[in-house]
Protein backbone atom coordinates (compact mmCIF):
# COMPACT_ATOMS: atom_id res chain seq x y z
CA UNK A 1 0.00 0.00 0.00
CA UNK A 2 1.13 3.53 -0.77
CA UNK A 3 0.20 6.08 1.88
CA UNK A 4 0.22 9.79 1.08
CA UNK A 5 0.42 12.47 3.77
CA UNK A 6 -0.04 16.10 2.80
CA UNK A 7 -0.23 18.02 6.09
CA UNK A 8 2.57 19.23 8.30
CA UNK A 9 3.05 17.16 11.48
CA UNK A 10 2.99 20.41 13.41
CA UNK A 11 -0.46 21.26 12.11
CA UNK A 12 -2.17 17.92 12.17
CA UNK A 13 -1.60 14.41 13.45
CA UNK A 14 -1.83 12.84 10.00
CA UNK A 15 1.82 11.79 9.78
CA UNK A 16 1.66 10.25 13.23
CA UNK A 17 -1.60 8.44 12.68
CA UNK A 18 -0.46 7.22 9.26
CA UNK A 19 2.70 5.71 10.74
CA UNK A 20 0.69 4.11 13.56
CA UNK A 21 -1.77 2.51 11.14
CA UNK A 22 0.40 1.46 8.23
CA UNK A 23 1.85 -2.01 8.03
CA UNK A 24 5.51 -2.92 7.74
CA UNK A 25 6.62 -2.81 4.14
CA UNK A 26 4.35 0.13 3.30
CA UNK A 27 5.51 3.09 1.30
CA UNK A 28 4.84 6.52 2.79
CA UNK A 29 4.92 9.48 0.40
CA UNK A 30 5.10 12.92 1.98
CA UNK A 31 3.63 15.61 -0.27
CA UNK A 32 2.70 19.28 0.07
CA UNK A 33 3.13 20.40 3.69
CA UNK A 34 3.74 16.78 4.66
CA UNK A 35 7.36 17.14 3.49
CA UNK A 36 8.19 18.97 6.72
CA UNK A 37 8.00 15.56 8.38
CA UNK A 38 11.03 14.57 6.33
CA UNK A 39 13.27 17.20 7.91
CA UNK A 40 15.90 16.63 10.58
CA UNK A 41 16.04 18.10 14.05
CA UNK A 42 12.31 18.36 14.66
CA UNK A 43 10.29 16.78 17.43
CA UNK A 44 8.93 14.37 14.83
CA UNK A 45 12.25 13.34 13.30
CA UNK A 46 12.79 10.39 15.64
CA UNK A 47 9.30 9.08 14.95
CA UNK A 48 9.81 9.25 11.19
CA UNK A 49 13.33 7.84 11.43
CA UNK A 50 12.03 4.90 13.46
CA UNK A 51 9.36 4.26 10.81
CA UNK A 52 12.06 4.10 8.16
CA UNK A 53 13.22 0.89 9.77
CA UNK A 54 10.20 -0.99 8.46
CA UNK A 55 8.70 1.31 5.82
CA UNK A 56 10.07 3.31 2.91
CA UNK A 57 9.58 7.04 3.31
CA UNK A 58 9.54 9.23 0.21
CA UNK A 59 9.17 12.98 -0.19
CA UNK A 60 7.92 14.79 -3.28
CA UNK A 61 10.90 16.83 -4.48
CA UNK A 62 8.98 19.75 -6.02
CA UNK A 63 7.26 20.26 -2.65
CA UNK A 64 10.57 20.00 -0.76
CA UNK A 65 12.20 22.56 -3.05
CA UNK A 66 9.20 24.87 -2.99
CA UNK A 67 9.49 25.08 0.79
CA UNK A 68 13.26 25.52 0.80
CA UNK A 69 13.91 22.51 3.03
CA UNK A 70 16.12 20.61 0.61
CA UNK A 71 19.06 21.23 2.94
CA UNK A 72 17.20 19.91 5.99
CA UNK A 73 16.16 16.45 4.86
CA UNK A 74 16.94 13.44 6.99
CA UNK A 75 19.17 10.71 5.61
CA UNK A 76 17.16 7.89 4.13
CA UNK A 77 14.33 10.03 2.76
CA UNK A 78 13.92 9.15 -0.91
CA UNK A 79 13.02 11.99 -3.22
CA UNK A 80 10.67 11.52 -6.16
CA UNK A 81 9.22 13.90 -8.72
CA UNK A 82 5.64 13.76 -10.06
CA UNK A 83 6.62 11.02 -12.50
CA UNK A 84 8.04 9.10 -9.56
CA UNK A 85 4.78 9.68 -7.67
CA UNK A 86 2.94 8.06 -10.59
CA UNK A 87 5.40 5.15 -10.53
CA UNK A 88 4.79 4.64 -6.81
CA UNK A 89 1.05 4.54 -7.40
CA UNK A 90 1.60 1.93 -10.07
CA UNK A 91 3.98 -0.17 -7.98
CA UNK A 92 1.59 -0.40 -5.02
CA UNK A 93 -1.78 -2.00 -5.42
CA UNK A 94 -3.70 0.70 -3.53
CA UNK A 95 -3.28 4.28 -2.35
CA UNK A 96 -4.49 5.65 0.98
CA UNK A 97 -4.58 9.41 1.52
CA UNK A 98 -4.09 10.72 5.08
CA UNK A 99 -5.49 14.24 4.82
CA UNK B 1 -2.91 1.96 -15.45
CA UNK B 2 -6.45 3.34 -15.35
CA UNK B 3 -6.53 6.13 -12.76
CA UNK B 4 -9.30 7.85 -10.89
CA UNK B 5 -8.60 11.11 -9.08
CA UNK B 6 -10.66 12.82 -6.37
CA UNK B 7 -10.09 16.51 -5.66
CA UNK B 8 -11.58 17.76 -2.40
CA UNK B 9 -10.44 21.38 -2.34
CA UNK B 10 -10.88 24.52 -4.38
CA UNK B 11 -8.29 26.38 -6.42
CA UNK B 12 -5.65 28.52 -4.67
CA UNK B 13 -6.92 27.96 -1.12
CA UNK B 14 -5.22 24.57 -0.84
CA UNK B 15 -2.53 22.88 -2.89
CA UNK B 16 -4.73 19.85 -3.54
CA UNK B 17 -5.88 20.92 -7.00
CA UNK B 18 -2.32 21.81 -8.02
CA UNK B 19 -0.91 18.49 -6.86
CA UNK B 20 -3.74 16.58 -8.50
CA UNK B 21 -3.11 18.42 -11.76
CA UNK B 22 0.65 17.78 -11.73
CA UNK B 23 0.03 14.15 -10.89
CA UNK B 24 -2.54 13.79 -13.69
CA UNK B 25 -0.22 15.49 -16.17
CA UNK B 26 2.68 13.21 -15.24
CA UNK B 27 0.48 10.14 -15.48
CA UNK B 28 -0.74 11.12 -18.96
CA UNK B 29 2.84 11.80 -20.08
CA UNK B 30 3.70 8.28 -19.00
CA UNK B 31 0.90 6.90 -21.13
CA UNK B 32 -1.54 6.08 -18.33
CA UNK B 33 -5.24 6.72 -18.64
CA UNK B 34 -7.06 9.20 -16.42
CA UNK B 35 -10.54 7.67 -16.34
CA UNK B 36 -12.09 10.51 -14.37
CA UNK B 37 -11.27 13.43 -12.10
CA UNK B 38 -14.08 13.87 -9.58
CA UNK B 39 -14.34 17.22 -7.82
CA UNK B 40 -16.05 17.12 -4.42
CA UNK B 41 -16.49 19.42 -1.43
CA UNK B 42 -14.89 22.78 -2.31
CA UNK B 43 -13.19 20.99 -5.19
CA UNK B 44 -16.23 21.96 -7.29
CA UNK B 45 -14.86 25.52 -7.26
CA UNK B 46 -12.19 24.36 -9.70
CA UNK B 47 -14.94 24.50 -12.33
CA UNK B 48 -15.78 28.19 -12.31
CA UNK B 49 -15.49 29.99 -15.62
CA UNK B 50 -15.39 33.32 -13.78
CA UNK B 51 -11.88 32.89 -12.42
CA UNK B 52 -9.42 35.70 -13.12
CA UNK B 53 -6.17 34.95 -11.34
CA UNK B 54 -3.27 37.39 -11.56
CA UNK B 55 -1.47 37.35 -14.91
CA UNK B 56 1.76 36.13 -13.39
CA UNK B 57 0.20 33.14 -11.66
CA UNK B 58 -1.05 29.81 -12.93
CA UNK B 59 -4.65 29.59 -14.10
CA UNK B 60 -5.84 26.51 -12.26
CA UNK B 61 -9.30 26.31 -13.85
CA UNK B 62 -8.02 26.80 -17.41
CA UNK B 63 -5.30 24.22 -16.85
CA UNK B 64 -7.91 21.61 -16.05
CA UNK B 65 -10.04 22.63 -19.04
CA UNK B 66 -7.00 22.35 -21.32
CA UNK B 67 -6.06 18.97 -19.91
CA UNK B 68 -9.60 17.76 -20.51
CA UNK B 69 -9.57 18.97 -24.08
CA UNK B 70 -6.09 17.76 -24.99
CA UNK B 71 -6.39 14.32 -23.41
CA UNK B 72 -10.14 13.75 -23.31
CA UNK B 73 -10.13 13.60 -19.50
CA UNK B 74 -13.57 13.37 -17.86
CA UNK B 75 -13.84 16.19 -15.30
CA UNK B 76 -16.90 15.67 -13.13
CA UNK B 77 -18.24 18.12 -10.59
CA UNK B 78 -20.62 16.75 -7.98
CA UNK B 79 -24.29 17.65 -8.52
CA UNK B 80 -24.86 17.97 -4.77
CA UNK B 81 -21.71 19.89 -3.80
CA UNK B 82 -21.83 22.23 -6.81
CA UNK B 83 -25.19 23.98 -6.25
CA UNK B 84 -24.31 24.48 -2.56
CA UNK B 85 -21.29 26.45 -3.65
CA UNK B 86 -22.81 28.23 -6.63
CA UNK B 87 -21.30 26.28 -9.48
CA UNK B 88 -23.88 25.70 -12.21
CA UNK B 89 -24.13 24.72 -15.83
CA UNK B 90 -26.93 26.05 -18.07
CA UNK B 91 -29.31 23.21 -17.19
CA UNK B 92 -28.75 23.42 -13.44
CA UNK B 93 -29.08 27.21 -13.51
CA UNK B 94 -32.40 26.95 -15.31
CA UNK B 95 -33.61 24.16 -13.03
CA UNK B 96 -32.77 26.16 -9.91
CA UNK B 97 -34.05 29.50 -11.18
CA UNK B 98 -30.64 31.18 -11.34
CA UNK B 99 -29.96 34.05 -13.72
CA UNK B 100 -26.57 32.79 -14.83
CA UNK B 101 -24.37 29.76 -15.11
CA UNK B 102 -20.62 29.66 -14.62
CA UNK B 103 -19.21 26.26 -15.40
CA UNK B 104 -15.88 26.20 -17.23
CA UNK B 105 -15.28 24.27 -20.46
CA UNK B 106 -14.43 20.62 -20.07
CA UNK B 107 -16.29 20.13 -16.77
CA UNK B 108 -19.64 18.41 -16.42
CA UNK B 109 -21.97 18.18 -13.45
CA UNK B 110 -23.01 14.71 -12.39
CA UNK B 111 -23.83 12.55 -9.41
CA UNK B 112 -21.73 11.01 -6.67
CA UNK B 113 -22.26 7.70 -8.42
CA UNK B 114 -19.57 8.82 -10.85
CA UNK B 115 -17.05 8.78 -7.99
CA UNK B 116 -18.08 5.31 -6.86
CA UNK B 117 -18.04 4.09 -10.43
CA UNK B 118 -14.51 5.44 -10.84
CA UNK B 119 -13.52 3.49 -7.73
CA UNK B 120 -14.99 0.36 -9.25
CA UNK B 121 -13.60 0.78 -12.77
CA UNK B 122 -10.14 2.16 -12.03
CA UNK B 123 -6.97 0.36 -11.07
CA UNK B 124 -6.19 3.09 -8.56
CA UNK B 125 -8.13 5.94 -6.98
CA UNK B 126 -5.94 8.77 -5.69
CA UNK B 127 -7.41 11.39 -3.35
CA UNK B 128 -6.12 14.96 -3.01
CA UNK B 129 -7.53 17.11 -0.23
CA UNK B 130 -6.87 18.89 3.01
CA UNK C 1 -4.94 -7.56 -1.20
CA UNK C 2 -8.48 -8.90 -1.30
CA UNK C 3 -9.70 -10.74 -4.33
CA UNK C 4 -12.33 -9.00 -6.39
CA UNK C 5 -15.53 -10.96 -6.07
CA UNK C 6 -17.80 -11.32 -9.03
CA UNK C 7 -21.41 -10.94 -8.03
CA UNK C 8 -24.24 -12.37 -10.04
CA UNK C 9 -24.49 -10.78 -13.46
CA UNK C 10 -20.74 -10.15 -13.62
CA UNK C 11 -20.66 -6.92 -11.64
CA UNK C 12 -17.40 -6.29 -9.85
CA UNK C 13 -17.60 -6.00 -6.07
CA UNK C 14 -14.73 -4.17 -4.42
CA UNK C 15 -14.02 -3.46 -0.78
CA UNK C 16 -14.69 0.24 -0.31
CA UNK C 17 -13.41 1.99 2.80
CA UNK C 18 -14.64 5.41 3.87
CA UNK C 19 -12.05 6.94 6.17
CA UNK C 20 -13.45 9.60 8.52
CA UNK C 21 -10.91 11.50 10.61
CA UNK C 22 -12.46 14.92 11.01
CA UNK C 23 -14.90 16.33 13.52
CA UNK C 24 -18.40 17.21 12.35
CA UNK C 25 -19.80 20.77 12.09
CA UNK C 26 -16.49 22.67 12.06
CA UNK C 27 -15.98 21.49 8.50
CA UNK C 28 -18.28 19.96 5.88
CA UNK C 29 -16.38 16.71 5.40
CA UNK C 30 -18.45 14.60 7.79
CA UNK C 31 -21.76 15.57 6.17
CA UNK C 32 -20.60 15.29 2.59
CA UNK C 33 -18.72 12.02 3.13
CA UNK C 34 -21.91 10.55 4.57
CA UNK C 35 -23.70 11.60 1.38
CA UNK C 36 -21.15 9.60 -0.62
CA UNK C 37 -21.81 6.53 1.54
CA UNK C 38 -25.58 6.81 1.05
CA UNK C 39 -25.39 7.28 -2.72
CA UNK C 40 -22.67 4.66 -2.97
CA UNK C 41 -24.89 2.10 -1.26
CA UNK C 42 -26.79 1.67 -4.52
CA UNK C 43 -23.69 0.20 -6.09
CA UNK C 44 -23.75 -2.79 -3.73
CA UNK C 45 -20.05 -2.79 -2.96
CA UNK C 46 -18.51 -4.23 0.20
CA UNK C 47 -18.49 -1.08 2.34
CA UNK C 48 -16.71 -0.34 5.61
CA UNK C 49 -16.49 2.93 7.50
CA UNK C 50 -13.73 3.82 9.92
CA UNK C 51 -14.04 6.67 12.42
CA UNK C 52 -10.70 7.65 13.85
CA UNK C 53 -8.95 10.73 15.27
CA UNK C 54 -11.57 13.49 15.47
CA UNK C 55 -13.78 11.41 13.17
CA UNK C 56 -15.07 9.59 16.25
CA UNK C 57 -16.91 12.79 17.16
CA UNK C 58 -19.07 12.40 14.04
CA UNK C 59 -21.03 9.66 15.81
CA UNK C 60 -21.21 11.25 19.25
CA UNK C 61 -24.69 11.15 20.81
CA UNK C 62 -26.64 14.27 21.65
CA UNK C 63 -25.67 16.59 18.81
CA UNK C 64 -28.03 19.58 18.90
CA UNK C 65 -27.39 22.02 16.10
CA UNK C 66 -30.34 24.38 16.65
CA UNK C 67 -28.20 27.11 18.12
CA UNK C 68 -25.67 27.10 15.29
CA UNK C 69 -28.50 26.85 12.74
CA UNK C 70 -26.75 24.10 10.87
CA UNK C 71 -28.07 20.77 9.64
CA UNK C 72 -28.13 17.96 12.21
CA UNK C 73 -27.30 14.81 10.33
CA UNK C 74 -26.12 12.64 13.22
CA UNK C 75 -29.30 10.54 13.12
CA UNK C 76 -28.42 9.51 9.58
CA UNK C 77 -25.68 7.25 10.91
CA UNK C 78 -28.44 5.10 12.42
CA UNK C 79 -30.01 4.76 8.97
CA UNK C 80 -26.86 3.28 7.46
CA UNK C 81 -28.01 -0.19 8.42
CA UNK C 82 -30.99 0.21 6.08
CA UNK C 83 -28.53 0.84 3.27
CA UNK C 84 -26.65 -2.37 4.10
CA UNK C 85 -23.73 -0.34 5.45
CA UNK C 86 -23.11 -2.22 8.66
CA UNK C 87 -19.36 -2.44 9.00
CA UNK C 88 -18.65 0.56 11.19
CA UNK C 89 -15.38 0.68 13.09
CA UNK C 90 -13.89 3.14 15.53
CA UNK C 91 -10.34 3.51 16.76
CA UNK C 92 -9.89 2.49 20.37
CA UNK C 93 -6.97 4.87 20.80
CA UNK C 94 -8.95 7.78 19.35
CA UNK C 95 -11.86 7.07 21.69
CA UNK C 96 -9.62 6.68 24.75
CA UNK C 97 -7.70 9.88 24.19
CA UNK C 98 -11.01 11.73 23.85
CA UNK C 99 -12.57 10.19 26.94
CA UNK C 100 -15.28 8.47 24.91
CA UNK C 101 -16.79 5.03 25.26
CA UNK C 102 -19.16 3.04 23.07
CA UNK C 103 -22.03 4.36 25.24
CA UNK C 104 -21.33 7.84 23.92
CA UNK C 105 -22.01 6.84 20.36
CA UNK C 106 -25.20 7.19 18.37
CA UNK C 107 -24.75 3.90 16.53
CA UNK C 108 -23.34 0.42 17.19
CA UNK C 109 -19.74 0.10 16.13
CA UNK C 110 -16.87 -2.32 16.49
CA UNK C 111 -13.95 -0.87 18.44
CA UNK C 112 -10.55 -1.79 17.01
CA UNK C 113 -7.02 -0.96 18.08
CA UNK C 114 -4.36 0.43 15.77
CA UNK C 115 -3.01 -2.95 14.70
CA UNK C 116 -6.48 -4.25 13.92
CA UNK C 117 -7.33 -1.09 11.97
CA UNK C 118 -4.09 -1.40 10.02
CA UNK C 119 -5.06 -4.95 9.05
CA UNK C 120 -8.56 -3.86 8.10
CA UNK C 121 -7.31 -0.97 5.96
CA UNK C 122 -4.75 -3.19 4.29
CA UNK C 123 -7.55 -5.47 3.19
CA UNK C 124 -9.44 -2.78 1.27
CA UNK C 125 -9.50 -2.19 -2.50
CA UNK C 126 -10.57 1.45 -2.68
CA UNK C 127 -10.04 3.99 0.10
CA UNK C 128 -11.93 7.28 0.04
CA UNK C 129 -10.59 9.99 2.33
CA UNK C 130 -12.38 13.24 3.05
Please, could you describe this protein's structure?
The complex is a heterotrimer of chains A (about 100), B (about 130) and C (about 130). With about 100 residues, chain A is α/β, with parallel strands linked by helices. Chain A is built from four helices and five strands; from the N terminus they run βαβαβαβαβ. Chain B is of the alpha/beta class. Chain B has helices at about 15-30, 60-70, 80-85, 90-95, 115-120; strands at about 1-5, 35-40, 75-80, 105-110, 125-130. In chain B, α2 (about 60-70) links the parallel β2 (about 35-40) and β3 (about 75-80). Chain C has helices at about 30-40, 75-80, 90-95, 115-120, and strands spanning about 5, 10-15, 15-20, 45-50, 85-90, 110, 125-130. In chain C, the strands form two sheets. Chain C has a five-stranded parallel beta sheet with strand order 6-5-4-3-7. In chain C, β1 and β2 form a beta hairpin. The chains are: A alpha/beta (about 100), B alpha/beta (about 130), C alpha/beta (about 130). Chains in contact: A-B, A-C, B-C.
Question: Helices and strands in order, then pairings?
Answer:
The complex is a heterotrimer of chains A (99), B (130) and C (130).
Chain A: E1 2-5, H1 14-21, E2 27-30, H2 45-51, E3 56-60, H3 61-66, E4 78-80, H4 82-91, E5 95-98
Parallel strand pairs in A: 1-2, 1-5, 2-3, 3-4
Chain B: E1 2-7, H1 16-29, E2 33-39, H2 60-71, E3 75-78, H3 81-85, H4 90-95, E4 107-110, H5 113-121, E5 124-128
Parallel strand pairs in B: 1-2, 1-5, 2-3, 3-4
Chain C: E1 5-6, E2 12-13, E3 15-20, H1 29-40, E4 46-51, H2 76-79, E5 87-91, H3 92-97, E6 110-112, H4 114-122, E7 126-129
Parallel strand pairs in C: 3-4, 3-7, 4-5, 5-6
Antiparallel strand pairs in C: 1-2
